Amino acid sequence: MVKFIAKSSNKYLLDVRGLVCPYPVIYTRKALSKLKPGDELEVLTDNPPSCENVPRAVREEGHEVLGVERVEEGVWRIIIKKR
Fold first, then answer.
1. Quick check: helix, strand or coil at residue 80?
2. 3-state secondary structure 25-74
3. In a domain, 34, yes or no
4. Fewest CB atoms within 10 Å of the CB: 14, 44, 73, 82?
5. Looking at the predicted structure, is the pLDDT value of residue 3 above 90?
6. pLDDT value at 31 more than 90
């Protein structure tokens, strides 16, 4: 189940754990379309290919990837700043 949560006024969380590509990319693009420039989106995924596919897709759209890090065994966090 996809969760999209506001963490603060300009920081958001998108939880796409349990989904395989291309769905994490699709949901990330959809979430970014709702944000304002400068907002940050934290994407949680448990699909290793998403660690490459999501950053590549959002960079192609002009957004900035602030980081990709493992937060626990089998789970990664991708932090994106909307441009």
1. strand
2. HHHHHHHHHCCCCCCEEEEEECCCCHHHHHHHHHHHCCCEEEEEEEEECC
3. yes
4. 73
5. yes
6. yes
The tokens describing 27, both together, are 């949901």
Report the mean per-residue pLDDT for the chain: 97
Residue 46 belongs to domain with CATH number:
3.30.110.40
What is the residue range of 9's domain?
Answer: 3-66
Residue 1 has pLDDT above 90, yes or no: no
Catalytic residue chosen out of the listed positions 13, 21, 68, 75: 21
Q: Give catalytic status of residue 51 as yes or no.
A: no
pTM as predicted: 0.96
Strand partners, 75: 72
